[in-house]
Amino acid sequence: MKLKLPGNSKSLPGKVSTDEQRSSHGVNAQGNMLRASLLTGFAVVLVPLLLAIAYLALLQAPAQKSALIEQASDGYAAQQARYIGDSIATLRSRVDSAVRSPLALQAIAEQNPADIRLVEQAMLDYFPEAVSLRLLPLSDMGTADLAGGFEGLRNHIEVDLVRRVSNNEPAEPEAYQFEGQWLASLAQVTTHPRLPSRRAVVLLTVDASTLEAMLSYPQGMIGEFVLEQRVYSEGVDRDIRIASQGSGATFNASRADIDETPWRILFTPSATLIDEVSSHVRPPYEILALVLACCLAGFFLALQRSSKALESEISRIVDGAEHRTALDVHIPQLVPLAKDLRKLTLRRARMGNTSNIVPAVDTRTAGSSNTAMTSVEGPATRGLPPNIFRAYDIRGIADSDLDDETVFRIGSAIATIAGELGEQTLCIGYDGRASSSRIKGVLEKAILQAGRDVIDIGLVPTPLLYFATSLLEAKSGVMITGSHNPAEYNGMKIVLKGQTIAEGTIEKIRNIAQTGRFSKGTGHLIQRDVVSEYLDEVVSDIAIAVPLKIVVDAGNGATGHIAPALLEELGCEVIPLFCEVDGRFPNRSPDTSNEDNLSALVREVVSNDADFGVAYDGDGDRLVVVTGAGKIIRSDTLMMIFARDVVTRNPGADVVYDVKCSRNLAQLITGLGGRPVLWKTGHALMKEKMVETGALLGGEFSGHIFFGERWYGFDDGMYATGRLAEILSSQDQNLDDFIADLPIAVSTPEILIPVPDDEKFAMMQKFIDSARFADGKPNNLDGLRVDFQDGWGLLRASNTGPALTARFEAGDEAGLERIRTLFREQLAAVAPDLTMPF
């Protein structure tokens, strides 16, 4: 039986002739590994003897010296750690004494801002080592009022310190860089002795010189003392140097943690100290008798029998891979070969079949000439459609908004900006929409004429464009996709120098496209298949303990020819639904946020008794999950599942989530020992925040999930599906039982309120300026989110469509209706003619 595997057919230069390559398919025998194994066995007897001699002659005495130096270093490090810990405790005691002065207690009791400022200045005089001191009264709700911003605090680290101590949570001092210098802040809460309801937080900040002074050693510098802080970034602990004193020799540093801080001391002894300690070590003058017992292992390397066993086993492996039959491998070392061979044959069957892709239909109209556009010159004679330039991508009606000239100008502008950033090559991917092929052709011509090179990665989901810009040397690219919008839409998601661009760069593209000031040159085009590399990397990262049955609803989108193959290679049983790539979307809308579009998936999951089902939007960067019982899981609940997994293994990790997510998510993250970071909606904005904070996980309510742990930090519905399968495969519960343990609230889905694009932002600003919620705390980070004791409500302008979006959550239906009514009344006062579907 012959099995042909896909591979590179190009010949490489070497000693093997062309005829021999043809006869052996480039695979030849060289040497005899079995015979070499026998010779290796004999060497096993000699190695222990040689190692014992080398140990006595070269290692014993140096090891004793090293151990003594290490012991001394450990002592100095521990002593300095205790000293700094005592200094911090003393500083806290001084703060406590200062805040109990009559003037401070009076300011806390009256909570008059002017008096508080005077008390802050007076208290600062008692702390000459401090660069600032803040006294922040706590509201009746027990928290400092920071909803409108940082209230003069430097950054989110100081804000988080204040929040934690106000909630009676542990709050260690924390160091950070601010305006080019290291600062360290500590916070503690104080209560008025006669008015228990009057509380305040004291936030004291010192600079690096104070920390360096703590590192000074009384008897003179005997080495280098370094103060480090532990931080969590990209799934691993990192230590950042804050301050140092002295200098040390080349020797491993000793470490000692400083109690009740995230800091530790590193001490490296000086050459003088090393010489002094080493003088107390003398080599032994007597050599103890060395008794060496070498047990020779028996070798089961009968060459003839091994050769026959290998031939028989390989034949069975090849046959099992070709026919996909059950296979028991009797030589454990060959199990990876059997798995890889089966994976390659499965991928060949999946990826080699192009019948499930419906050819794109050219939808040229009056906006697209019958002659392919080859260039544009000078300023645009007509204005580019302003509505296509969104907050973090370009999107519009393909036939009218994205005609050939508009696409050519946008492509030329993108290439021009890429050149300014030093980026020579751009990756281009496109989805299965009817207009995508036309737009890709025009875009590529524009980029090439602007002097940039193009790597065409073909018809792929958006995550593979992000993957390509992470994998290849080309860190910039354009994904042609209409995302979750209807079939007549199309657009572009743009990555420049490894970052998904947002509003500022979109506006720059628009200006350059309008003026026509493009770079010129001649680029080169190549094609590259990144699908196999993507599948290999995901499969190597995710481990499924027990095979699951999963329904995959690709919605005729760009994931249809990849997602089923990926999950099958992970060992799951896949039931495909609408996995034929068809840009007309004949079976359902590509918008997975609308639960009406998921009815077929729900039926398929229940009828097939699947473990769960997953649906992707048109370009695969969003997902929605359906449980085995047919329940649709909203993305903030899905984030709770992922947060349990990620934060449990990475205590202290940041998790970013958008303003539309449940506040139960924040409480769960905090309870797990993580740090919740609330941020603006938008996939580009979320990725920026994850990079800024070093978050290991992020998610939007719309279905974008970002993994910074074990993955590249971009939104990828297929990878998120694999991570969910990995979690569930290691549990004794099904998905329905698993989510039953999570905190729940009564909530609405995302509610769309149609408002024209040119009116929505002004209307939203008017609402923010005029709305008043007496018993709620407003937050205008993104639109207006108001938190009440029993729930919250949100109203914001959509960045992707002509609408305002709203969402509400409460502890019960009565509370939910109350919050909806408050928002409805406030919005009606601003826009009385607006139809409100809530």
UniProtKB/TrEMBL annotation:
Alpha-D-phosphohexomutase C-terminal domain sequence ranges: 753-825
Keyword list, A-Z: Isomerase, Magnesium, Membrane, Metal-binding, Phosphoprotein, Transmembrane, Transmembrane helix
Domain Alpha-D-phosphohexomutase alpha/beta/alpha per the UniProt entry, residue ranges: 387-518, 533-630, 635-742
Family: Belongs to the phosphohexose mutase family.
Cofactor(s) demanded: Mg(2+)
UniProt xrefs under InterPro entries: A-D-PHexomutase_a/b/a-I, A-D-PHexomutase_a/b/a-I/II/III, A-D-PHexomutase_a/b/a-II, A-D-PHexomutase_a/b/a-III, A-D-PHexomutase_C, A-D-PHexomutase_C_sf, A-D-PHexomutase_CS, Alpha-D-phosphohexomutase_SF
Highest classification ranks of the organism: Bacteria, Pseudomonadati, Pseudomonadota, Gammaproteobacteria, Cellvibrionales
UniProt-listed Pfam families: PGM_PMM_I (PF02878), PGM_PMM_II (PF02879), PGM_PMM_III (PF02880), PGM_PMM_IV (PF00408)
Pathways involved: Nucleotide-sugar biosynthesis; GDP-alpha-D-mannose biosynthesis; alpha-D-mannose 1-phosphate from D-fructose 6-phosphate: step 2/2
Annotated spans, Disordered: 1-25
Catalytic activity: alpha-D-mannose 1-phosphate = D-mannose 6-phosphate
Transmembrane segments: 38-58
Protein name: phosphomannomutase
EC number: 5.4.2.8
